[in-house]
Write a structure and sequence with these properties.
The complex is a heterodimer. Chain A has helices at residues 45-52, 75-80, 98-106, 112-124, 140-152, 170-185, 197-203, 225-233, 295-303, 325-330, 340-344, 351-358, 365-375, 391-399, 421-436, 448-452, 479-487; strands spanning 7-16, 19-29, 34-39, 60-65, 68-70, 83-86, 158-162, 189-194, 206-211, 214-220, 254-264, 270-280, 284-288, 310-315, 318-319, 333-336, 409-413, 440-445, 457-462, 465-470. By secondary structure, chain A is an alpha/beta fold. Chain A folds into 2 domains: 7-233, Rossmann fold, CATH 3.40.50; 254-332 and 407-487, 3-Layer(aba) Sandwich (Rossmann fold), CATH 3.40.50.300. In chain A, strands 6-7-8-3-9-10 form a 6-stranded mixed sheet, with helices on both faces. A 6-stranded mixed sheet of chain A has the order 16-17-18-13-19-20, with helices on both faces. In chain A, strands 2-1-4-5 form a 4-stranded antiparallel sheet, covered by helices on one side. By secondary structure, chain B is mainly alpha-helical. Helices cover 71% and strands 3% of the residues of chain B. Chain B is built from 14 helices and 2 strands, in the order βααααααααααααααβ. A two-stranded antiparallel ribbon of chain B has the order 1-2. In chain B, helix 4 runs parallel beside helix 6 (143-163), helix 7 (196-215) packs across helix 8 and helix 13 (294-316) runs antiparallel to helix 14 (323-345). Chain B is globular. Classes of the chains: A alpha/beta, B mainly alpha. Chains A and B meet through helix 10, helix 11 and helix 12 of A and strand 1, helix 8 and helix 9 of B.
Amino acid sequence: MMRKPFIEVVEIYKKFGDVIALNGVSLEIYPGEILAVLGENGSGKSTLAKILYGLYFPDKGYIKVDDVVTVFSSPAEAKNRGIFLVSQRPQLVDDMSVLENVALFLNISPSRDLKKKLEVTLRDLGMAIDVDRGVYTLSYTEKQFIDLVKALITQPRLLIVDEAATYLPRELKIKFLDIIKKFAARGGSVMYITHKILEAIEMGDRFIVLRKGDVVGVFEKGVDVTTIRRAMFGSEEYLTTFKRSPKKITHESFALSVENLIVYDEHGKPSVNDVSLNVRSGELISIVGIAGNGQKELGEAIAGLRKAARGRIMLNGNEITHAPASERIKKGLIYVPEDPFREGVAMGLTVAENVKLFSQSKVSRELLDALIKKLDVNPSNPFINVAKLSGGNIQKVSLARLLLTTPKVVVAYSPTRMLDERSKTLTLSILQRLAESGSAVLLLSEDIEEVLHISTRLGVMVSGKIVRFFETPDLESCREDIEKVMVHA
Amino acid sequence: MPKVAIVKRELSKIATALAKVLVILLGLLLAATLTSIATGNTLKLISITLFQSFTNLNVFVYISTLLPTAVGLSLAFSANAWNLGAEGQLVFGAIGATFIALFTPLGRQEIIAPIAALIFASFLGALWALPAALLKMFRGINEALTTLLMNFIAYYVANYLVKGPWRGRTVYGYPTTDMIPIESRIPTAPGYSFSWYVVVACIAIAVLLYLFLYRTRVGIALRALGSSIHFVELSGLSSKKLFLIAFLISGALAGFAGGVKILVYHKKLVEGPIVGGGYGFTSIMVSWLGGLNPLFVIPASYYTAALYILSFGLQIGSAAVGDALSSTIVGFLLALILLADFLTRYRIVIRFR
């Protein structure tokens, strides 16, 4: 018996202004199958997801569901056909409770039945979340799970997972992926979108690679990393291996020092609890920890986006504890925020205008073009609105701030989270080069992989405290110890 | 059943502009036809009234007030500074200009008098905007509410002045001041009540503010403030200072417009609601019609000014269609701009199955 695909995408073509996002993409997904869709930043993955979910309307091409040509003009219609999207940013209304959110999403009233059903589903998944809690009290991770659960509760036929697991801490990620696998094992279809090759290989039954809107590779199970990587990035060499240069500390004094810092979160609980650390010029210090352990708040307090409740922050010997962020930046601090959409760029401006704001001096056209080329921003036209770029490319624009000066101090919080392998490597090498040329670099991260090879010193943060510093020329050998400290204590 | 979907689209800038002009022209034609059917006047007569409204030099009377005010507001709105107090700031500008012209020795010196009066008018306009800005910056109080309420205070301050200490000696008890000295008036175009100097100045202001907003770092940062305060701070620019700048510039320009009204049009201070005349409120709409871009505010203020003239022309001209219908037509023509904007951004897809 021939298997029939649940959904077929036929020659979909989508353009945004002059930018071609999808250039005639065709694929099909069978029941019980996980189709992994891979591609670097800006390759069209998210656009494809949004078309299947009825958020965008294709310029050309069509979709067939159960062999019937279908037009989705809104997510409501896609949902009616059993198609659900779980995206990288949980789609929940903060001011409402979990139950109300799920009811709103399903377009039904928040009845007792629904509550029971929701509680049962959550219990089956091993999540202990009170469904009457306001969503604003949930952590990012919990929100991401609720986003998945609200799709699963209706017995969907196709689940589109758009980088939704990418930012989850490891154990929870395993759990999250498990739920998706079980869903497929029961006959559901999954479109699993990611830029992480290993994650795709772990999840996928089949693989489709997109590059600049074209399908450049279709692979069956058993494909290896190199083959996929070559398809994603073309044949060019890009992986630079990191070699830590011997410590070249130019000054004995501290460029950045934090003394007994206490920072409260939105609920009045200390998220940074008595943290002290010092960074010298030429050092690259990393602070790792599982998400939600205070790295974000530490970074924001140093940048001035969050109030320090107690303690002192010094920049080159000047106290900046209570200075507004703008003043700290003027004094030579650069902060790379994690969320490019809200803090990294101004969405209403063009690429060129954003870059202009990063620099105190004039930015020539040549410099602008060079930056775009170096960061590989795609599309490369500096006069289009950043809002038209994909998430990863927006983050690249935000990173341009690192290339305009040699800052005294750089603080970055998960700067590579949105980036594909090539851009990630580039970003880390930029940070490393800045340290080599005399900047004091503090990298706050949730990803041990990215910091292990470039740090001169590494601290582990647990529940708002830095519980241990590791300092050896070969941090790789401490990996297990570091991981242990991250999870326990 | 046919399926109807509204779908986003993007046209090139030229196509967008052309489409908008076309929609507006078609709309004008439609408006003329409807009016002619409703009133029994010939289409020709209505079309002539329409045409005359758009070619009447009197549009500059309105442009002189609407343009500077709306340009200032577009700057404030770009920076997320919700200054709804242009009306009051305009009234205070008028008070300032009157003060210089009537009560200081500067008022009798040619050339110096109008310039000094306009500078002081701008200063008072900015000053009237200041409390709302400070309350927002240091106490987080919603500036839309404070500025809105300050309008009415400004009205009554003007009323108090013209009925009290500033009431003229030669005005037979009317609530106005004496006429300002000839030296402080700005010469008008012969036979009209607007001044070419002012028109040129207003256009220059629009162009300068465009360059400021789109070419300078501070201006770009002002626009970025509309997207993200944190982003602006992380770029090393003080979001509070920028907010204050946006507020003060918009207040100063409304004050300037108020000064112009006194020096060119009224030539004396009159009651608050008459000086203001609602132009401060209309300017809010004009700045949005121009998409908050000072250059596009120029045609937007022209269009709105022509509609003012049209509504008078329809009521008292040979077409004489009455107040209600003329308001309907003006409202229709304004709504058309929104329709044109919608049609250039979205398309409607209908599929039959």
